[in-house]
Amino acid sequence: MHLLDVRQARVLHLAAAVGTGCLLTLMLLLNSELARHGGALFASWTAHGTGALVAIALLLLLATRSGAPGQSFRYSAAPAPWWAYLGGMTGAVNVMLSSTAVNIGLALTGTQAVALSTQMLFSLAADRWGLLGLPRQRLAWRDLWPVLLIVTGSAIIIFAGRDP
């Protein structure tokens, strides 16, 4: 691959990550508004129901352009492990918990700060112990410092950024 192509790919990947972060924050805001009006379970059902409809529509659209349905989306012929199918369950619980947290005092920024901190801590643990099929990684101080800074920043947002 040409050096310019590699740089363009990195920019594209970074842009995709930034877009994902923006979409996750927007999703939390929208889901918390649904939860405020109809409850956390209603917000979760609505989010996952509309998400399923959009996924089906995209699958049908892409399948008509690339041949047989699903063929262009396969990466491996091996079946996924049973626990890989639990993502929908964790997503449903995540929508209920996060949309409730936004509405009971943490607000959007505090909820995102706690979520980021715990995601980083869980990621370190998953890497260290090879959870859910990940290769085990030996952690160094350079892996811990960014997480410490994120957790500290999150604590400042939550505890110092609000009036009692």
UniProtKB/TrEMBL annotation:
Pfam families: DMT_YdcZ. The keyword rRNA-binding does not apply. InterPro entries: YdcZ (IPR006750). The keyword Membrane applies. GO terms for cellular component: plasma membrane. The chain crosses the membrane at residues 12-30, 42-62, 82-107, 144-161. Keywords: Membrane, Transmembrane, Transmembrane helix. This is EamA domain-containing protein.
